[in-house]
């Protein structure tokens, strides 16, 4: 602390207290900048009413345009400058507003206001990493999970991912990594994918990436919906309590809806069928009042236990197994309001791991330390200067004052004569605040550092494979099959044989011989008899299992939030359609009537039923299960429809539960699966099949069908 000036002390009572915030505070704050067009005249930016918005000013109707046309020039000039640079990574994203409510235990660990105020407004942005702003949602990639807490003591950003580890250990390698994973520099191919030479070249030369690459080869890399996705702070952070005691923590977002992912073939088909799939589903659910919810959890490690792990807590390629340190829930995140404007909010939001508040602190993780520089730096360029904190979405809800002034795009009209501290001209304001448990100034953890300058990596960061093996061991058989298929597919896109061989022979055997052989067989590449890794890299503990690492460990268990197609054509039984809809809605699922055309379906009893989509407009890849409604004429019509048969085959291939209400031998035969196939339920009434169908839907997929799914041609 600098020496305090007397004017500050004497005027302290005039300082602003922290405001009382509630879940709506940010919404109210944004209202200051919302613009409504209702009843407005069309005017220029200077306020001049526009009489003709269709024609330039010209010398005669067929004559040349006139330079004088200030209305045309202003309009075109603004349009020409509408774009800003996209984020260098995480360019494609979707965001939502909401609030965070801490549980009673949270304040025990941290004095941060966000853990004791009843509710703090938030904005969360989900993203893919590699692709550009217009790329596909469901590509194989890491998902960003960044949350801005507009707390009463300042903004805290928890800028995490949906995977708990990272590709590299030191920020020094981030530009290399990103250059390798991004589209290749000579032809800008491929978009949004890691399946190319430069990525596999880099990661096969950087064994520290093995653990994270394995995560990205799992189905975690294409979540079914953001609501079904876990989130992680990745680095070890610190929480500081009211007494000043600091503890190490790892942050987790646990989805209350459970975890579900797509299947690779499904994800790929969605690139074409609905490239905005994740974004659209979140938007629609929120519009329909179906909020997204997570619990914030922490793994807490006392400072004296820092060295009690067989890995280094500062190494971001490692996680703390939940069996070793359980995740303690400390609060709940609810996302329940869509932004008003994509550009103003989702595009202009500026996250930074450096936005922290009293009660939260960093560690010496060298990846985290590098990030602390990068985010502010990139935002200066992307958002055009140092004043992006004034943008409505970035503006703190708690008041702030300092002596920073001017710069590009400055909005604030600072009053007063003194823009320096100490001063006596403005009575010493704005003034410093001493640290304290509540409403105190920020104070860094008082860590003792006594070291020599050195560019080196700690030996404790040396084991690159134990946790990769832990992850592999913890997957179910189906998940392992998907991982083998993922490496096989990705490497098939690598043109250089020696890169494919390096991955299969030098990296994969250190994770698992089964994995290496599985991929090796499909590439015609032999695998060494023993893992080639050095002892130090290889580590111990290769037989351990952590059940929490399987996606199937947190399946939803019920049908809430699931989308179910009801296939119907003219002649359908209206009563059964109604019965199915009611049962699904009661369980919290969304029924969607899918018909051959968008024309209303005429039921057997003459009633008309509106369809929610067509067979090829809302294809099976957009739903979680399919029910063919009863009514023999309708079923016969669907049996004759190639699109309907394809719908069912594709759903079957993607392990989705299917129910058919009718005698449907011909339909089953045409769809090439059997009445007795797993997860296919047939019966004469809805009541006969619904409970079995719903039970499987709760498990997300018919996992036992995996062995035959590949035989399906769809
Ligand atoms: Fe980021 N990262 N990152 N990152 N990151 C950015 O910041 C960076 C890392 C993450 O929705 C950039 O404003 C470095 C880990 C998310 O706006 C940039 C390193 C994790 C988002 C940047 C990392 C993340 C970003 C690009 C290694 C998970 C999107 C645009 C030292 C814990 C936030 C921007 C949003 C965005 C740098 C590694 C998460 C360039 C240097 C690890 C969710 O500053």
From TrEMBL:
<keyword id="KW-0376">Hydrogen peroxide</keyword>
<keyword id="KW-0349">Heme</keyword>
<feature type="binding site">
    <location>
        <position position="174"/>
    </location>
    <ligand>
        <name>heme</name>
    </ligand>
</feature>
<dbReference type="Pfam" id="PF06628">
    <property type="entry name" value="Catalase-rel"/>
</dbReference>
<feature type="compositionally biased region" description="Polar residues">
    <location>
        <begin position="1"/>
        <end position="16"/>
    </location>
</feature>
<dbReference type="GO" id="GO:0004096">
    <property type="term" value="F:catalase activity"/>
</dbReference>
<feature type="region of interest" description="Disordered">
    <location>
        <begin position="1"/>
        <end position="44"/>
    </location>
</feature>
<dbReference type="InterPro" id="IPR011614">
    <property type="entry name" value="Catalase_core"/>
</dbReference>
<dbReference type="GO" id="GO:0005829">
    <property type="term" value="C:cytosol"/>
</dbReference>
<comment type="similarity">
    <text>Belongs to the catalase family. HPII subfamily.</text>
</comment>
<feature type="domain" description="Catalase core">
    <location>
        <begin position="43"/>
        <end position="429"/>
    </location>
</feature>
<protein>
    <recommendedName>
        <fullName>Catalase</fullName>
        <ecNumber>1.11.1.6</ecNumber>
    </recommendedName>
</protein>
<feature type="binding site">
    <location>
        <position position="125"/>
    </location>
    <ligand>
        <name>heme</name>
    </ligand>
</feature>
<feature type="binding site">
    <location>
        <position position="371"/>
    </location>
    <ligand>
        <name>heme</name>
    </ligand>
</feature>
<feature type="binding site">
    <location>
        <position position="87"/>
    </location>
    <ligand>
        <name>heme</name>
    </ligand>
</feature>
<dbReference type="InterPro" id="IPR010582">
    <property type="entry name" value="Catalase_immune_responsive"/>
</dbReference>
<feature type="active site">
    <location>
        <position position="161"/>
    </location>
</feature>
<dbReference type="GO" id="GO:0042744">
    <property type="term" value="P:hydrogen peroxide catabolic process"/>
</dbReference>
<dbReference type="GO" id="GO:0020037">
    <property type="term" value="F:heme binding"/>
</dbReference>
<feature type="active site">
    <location>
        <position position="90"/>
    </location>
</feature>
<dbReference type="InterPro" id="IPR018028">
    <property type="entry name" value="Catalase"/>
</dbReference>
<dbReference type="InterPro" id="IPR041399">
    <property type="entry name" value="Catalase_large_C"/>
</dbReference>
<comment type="function">
    <text>Decomposes hydrogen peroxide into water and oxygen; serves to protect cells from the toxic effects of hydrogen peroxide.</text>
</comment>
<keyword id="KW-0575">Peroxidase</keyword>
<keyword id="KW-0408">Iron</keyword>
<feature type="binding site" description="axial binding residue">
    <location>
        <position position="375"/>
    </location>
    <ligand>
        <name>heme</name>
    </ligand>
</feature>
<dbReference type="InterPro" id="IPR020835">
    <property type="entry name" value="Catalase_sf"/>
</dbReference>
<dbReference type="Pfam" id="PF00199">
    <property type="entry name" value="Catalase"/>
</dbReference>
<feature type="binding site">
    <location>
        <position position="382"/>
    </location>
    <ligand>
        <name>heme</name>
    </ligand>
</feature>
<keyword id="KW-0479">Metal-binding</keyword>
<keyword id="KW-0560">Oxidoreductase</keyword>
<dbReference type="GO" id="GO:0046872">
    <property type="term" value="F:metal ion binding"/>
</dbReference>
<feature type="compositionally biased region" description="Basic and acidic residues">
    <location>
        <begin position="28"/>
        <end position="41"/>
    </location>
</feature>
<dbReference type="InterPro" id="IPR024712">
    <property type="entry name" value="Catalase_clade2"/>
</dbReference>
<dbReference type="Pfam" id="PF18011">
    <property type="entry name" value="Catalase_C"/>
</dbReference>
<dbReference type="InterPro" id="IPR002226">
    <property type="entry name" value="Catalase_haem_BS"/>
</dbReference>
<dbReference type="GO" id="GO:0006979">
    <property type="term" value="P:response to oxidative stress"/>
</dbReference>
<dbReference type="InterPro" id="IPR043156">
    <property type="entry name" value="Catalase_clade2_helical"/>
</dbReference>
<dbReference type="InterPro" id="IPR029062">
    <property type="entry name" value="Class_I_gatase-like"/>
</dbReference>
């Amino acid at each position: 602390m600098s020496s305090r000036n007397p004017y500050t002390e004497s005027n302290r009572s005039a300082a602003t207290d922290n405001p009382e915030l509630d879940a709506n505070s940010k919404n109210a704050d944004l209202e200051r900048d919302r613009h409504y067009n209702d009843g407005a005249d069309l005017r220029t930016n200077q306020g001049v009413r526009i009489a003709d918005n269709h024609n330039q000013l010209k010398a005669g109707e067929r004559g040349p345009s006139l330079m004088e046309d200030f209305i045309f020039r202003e309009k075109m000039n603004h349009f020409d400058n509408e774009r800003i640079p996209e984020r260098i990574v995480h360019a494609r994203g979707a965001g939502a507003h909401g609030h965070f409510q801490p549980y009673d235990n949270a304040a025990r660990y941290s004095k941060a206001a966000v853990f004791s105020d009843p509710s703090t407004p938030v904005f969360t942005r989900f993203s893919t990493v590699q692709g550009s702003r217009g790329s596909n949602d469901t590509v194989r990639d890491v998902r960003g999970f960044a949350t801005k807490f507009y707390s009463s003591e300042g903004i805290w950003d928890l800028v995490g991912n949906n995977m708990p580890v990272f590709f590299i250990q030191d920020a020094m390698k981030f530009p290399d990594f990103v250059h390798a994973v991004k589209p290749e520099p000579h032809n800008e191919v491929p978009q949004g994918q890691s399946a190319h030479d430069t990525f596999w070249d880099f990661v096969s030369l950087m064994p520290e990436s093995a653990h994270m690459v394995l995560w990205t080869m799992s189905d975690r890399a294409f979540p079914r919906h953001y609501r079904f996705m876990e989130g992680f702070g990745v680095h070890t952070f610190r929480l500081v309590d009211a007494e000043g005691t600091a503890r190490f923590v790892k942050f987790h977002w646990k989805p209350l809806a459970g975890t579900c992912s797509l299947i690779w073939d499904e994800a790929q088909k969605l690139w074409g069928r609905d490239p905005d799939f994740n974004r659209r589903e979140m938007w629609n659910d929120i519009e329909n009042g179906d909020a997204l919810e997570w619990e914030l959890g922490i793994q807490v490690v006392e400072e004296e236990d820092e060295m009690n792990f067989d890995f280094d807590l500062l190494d971001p390629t490692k996680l703390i197994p939940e069996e070793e340190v359980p995740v303690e829930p400390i609060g709940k995140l609810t996302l329940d309001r869509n932004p008003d404007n994509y550009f103003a909010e989702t595009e202009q939001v500026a996250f930074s791991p450096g936005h922290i508040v009293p009660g939260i602190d960093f560690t010496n993780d060298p990846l985290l330390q590098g990030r602390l520089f990068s985010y502010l730096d990139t935002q200066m360029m992307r958002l055009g200067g140092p004043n992006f904190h004034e943008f409505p979405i970035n503006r703190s809800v708690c008041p702030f004052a300092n002596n920073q002034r001017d710069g590009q795009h400055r909005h604030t009209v600072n009053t007063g004569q003194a823009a320096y501290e100490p001063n006596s001209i403005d009575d010493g304001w704005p003034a410093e605040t001493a640290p304290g448990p509540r409403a105190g100034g920020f104070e860094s953890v008082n860590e003792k550092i006594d070291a020599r300058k050195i560019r080196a990596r700690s030996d404790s960061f040396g084991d690159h494979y134990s946790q990769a093996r832990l992850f592999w061991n913890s997957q179910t058989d189906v998940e392992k099959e998907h991982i083998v298929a993922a490496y096989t597919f990705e490497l098939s896109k690598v043109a250089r044989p020696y890169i494919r061989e390096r991955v299969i022979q030098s990296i994969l055997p250190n994770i698992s011989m089964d994995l290496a052989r599985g991929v090796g067989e499909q590439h015609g590449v032999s695998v060494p008899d023993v893992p080639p890794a050095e002892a130090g890299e290889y580590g111990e503990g290769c037989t351990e299992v952590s059940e929490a690492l399987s996606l199937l460990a947190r399946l939803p268990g019920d049908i809430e939030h699931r989308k179910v197609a009801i296939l119907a054509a003219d002649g359908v039984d209206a009563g059964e359609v109604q019965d199915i809809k009611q049962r699904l809605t009661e369980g919290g699922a969304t029924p969607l009537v899918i018909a051959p055309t968008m024309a209303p379906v005429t039921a057997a009893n003459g009633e008309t039923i509106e369809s929610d989509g067509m067979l090829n407009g809302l294809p099976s890849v957009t739903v979680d299960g399919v029910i063919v409604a009863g009514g023999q004429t309708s079923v016969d019509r669907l049996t004759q429809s190639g699109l309907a048969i394809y719908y069912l085959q594709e759903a079957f291939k993607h392990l989705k539960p299917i129910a058919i209400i009718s005698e449907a031998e011909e339909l089953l035969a045409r769809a090439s699966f059997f009445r007795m196939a797993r997860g296919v339920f047939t019966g004469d009434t809805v009541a006969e099949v619904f409970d079995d169908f719903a039970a499987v839907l709760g498990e997300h997929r018919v996992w036992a069908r995996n062995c035959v799914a590949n035989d399906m041609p769809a």
